[in-house]
Specification:
With 282 residues, this protein is an alpha+beta fold. It is built from eight helices and eleven strands. Helix 5 crosses helix 6 and helix 5 packs antiparallel against helix 7.
Length: 282
Amino acid sequence: MKESVTLEQIHAVHLELLDELDRVCKKHHIRYFIDSGTLLGAVRHKAAIPWDDDADTSMLRSEYEKFRKIVREELGEGFGFVEPSDLGEQAVWDFVPCITKLNTRLFDETEEQDYYGHGINNHINLDIFILDDVPDSRLRYYGQYAMMIVIYGLSMGHRYRLNMEDYTGFSKLIVNVLSGIGRHIPAQKLIGWYDRVCQWGTGKNKQKGQCFYGNNLFHLINTMYQKEWFAKDTTLTMSGHAYQAPADYDAILTRMYGDYMTPPPVEAQMGDHCDLSQVRIW
């Protein structure tokens, strides 16, 4: 029986993924940023957050569109690129593209993992969040946000398993209704709809200059940021590896986490993206 993988080993794979992203982006003059917990780790720990078990990056929409056109041909051996539409004709997990390390396995091989693109994203991954413009018009924004919620709910009808015990009251009713309808709408169409709705504000944020992570976790898509916070780059190091980051990372991390330099209580210092006993690296 193989021994469980350690978080340190997972962090080492994350660095390999970040190095490869950095290489490709520099070659093609594409801007990217380390983001979320990865950015926080670079600032607070100069390394990965000791208990973190995933890695995050982001790109402005214009940069991501350039990136997706070249990445599949440019990635080195042993790496893969997975977009939401790659998971198959009837599967939707989320709306986050990622770079994967192919000689790894994140979860045990099961029927559920096979459902999502025959396990195409069942690897240690580097997520890429996309920064889209928030329209200045509040009416347009609320319409956009409402449409994103509806499409997200419809897409849940294409999950392998949907545990309704996770929901209560009105939320349970809404999820039940939307997922039921969504099962009859092709997954690829829903993914395309969501991507287009995320871009409703493109170029329409000249006055307020706001942006958001449209493909982030569902409860975070209504958090707004100032686009100027991402206007300039700086370099931050993680375990001696240098990566691009927004120069105004203080404003971004404060919006995300509040007092980000103070670690959470010990009982909250744990990852929630994998089970170390199932992870394998070959």
